[in-house]
Amino acid sequence: MLLQRILTALVLAPLAILIVLLPPTGVFGAIVAVAFLAAWGEWAQLSGLHGRARVALLIVAAGVFVLLWLARDSAWLDWLLVAGVAWWLVACLWLRHFAFAAAPTRDNTALKLLAGAFVIFPAWVALVGIHGHSPHGPWWTLLALMIVWASDIGAYAAGRAFGRRKLAPHISPGKTWAGAYGALVAGVLLALIGAWLLGVRDARLLALALLAAATVAISIVGDLFESLLKRHAQVKDSGSIFPGHGGLMDRLDSVFAALPIFAAGLWLLQL
């Protein structure tokens, strides 16, 4: 299984880097929207929506992405980004009450789909906003993703070496506090290196380190929340598209949470 995960990552990582760095923002946004739509489909299934209703939801979501692109210069998209950040703070409370909305009822499905909207669309706005923000936008976009990737590696290494105390045993028994600390260290170090290469200096470098720490922390919340959905749905993975890695949601859960925080921080720091 580990070898399969490594081989899949060796294929996906270079592909993701090329998608981030090579195309213009419009093409990049369209590619990301397709990936996010597929992830949204997995989220809908985890939430209890199936068949034609799920297809209809995907069609509506595709229309929303088009509208968001057409309104990309509108000030109200900033508020959507704020809503995305606020949602992940609410998600922290949901994790503390992990049995909330667990029953497969129509109301709970609707609630989880609403939560999914606050996950998917602000993340897309954040990603496209970072990418098109400046001449270095694609590199900042890559840095945002690499912070999450580095934190995943740090969490795995620290958890394997030092993991004893469980982080959220009822939701994801494999995650430990040592893994969380490893994620923070790896994510912040990667952010400092990347920001230095992008010309960030002085106090803004320290501020960027704090932003990276917040980004990693909320990415862990994103990972845990998807684990919560899978617990409710009684499945191991959100899908099976990636050998050894599961579905798109399994790969993007941390990214979805990290992006609004990182984008908002860059805006506040005027980077």
Secondary structure elements and pairings:
Blueprint: H1 2-21, H2 25-47, H3 51-70, H4 76-96, H5 106-131, H6 137-162, E1 166-168, E2 172-176, H7 177-197, H8 202-233, H9 248-269
Antiparallel strand pairs: 1-2
Helix pairs in contact: 2-3, 2-5, 4-5, 4-8, 4-9, 5-6, 5-9, 6-7, 7-8, 8-9
Annotation field: number of helices: 9
Structural class, please?
Answer: mainly alpha
How many discrete structural domains? Answer: 1
Instruction: Report the sheet with the most strands, covering strand number, pairing sense and barrel closure.
Output: 2 strands, antiparallel
Shape estimate: globular
User: In angstroms, what separates the terminal alpha carbons?
Assistant: 40 Å
User: In percent terms, what proportion of residues is strand?
Assistant: under 5%
Strand order of the largest sheet: 1-2
Taking pLDDT < 50 over at least 5 consecutive residues as the criterion, the unreliable ranges are: none
Radius of gyration: 18 Å
Summed up:
With 271 residues, the chain is mostly helical.
What does this structure look like?
This protein has a two-stranded antiparallel ribbon with strand order 1-2. The mean pLDDT is 90. It has one domain. The chain has 271 residues and is mostly helical. The protein is globular, with a radius of gyration of 18 Å. The protein has nine helices and two strands, in the order H-H-H-H-H-H-E-E-H-H-H. The longest helix is centred in the C-terminal third of the chain and has 32 residues, at 202-233.
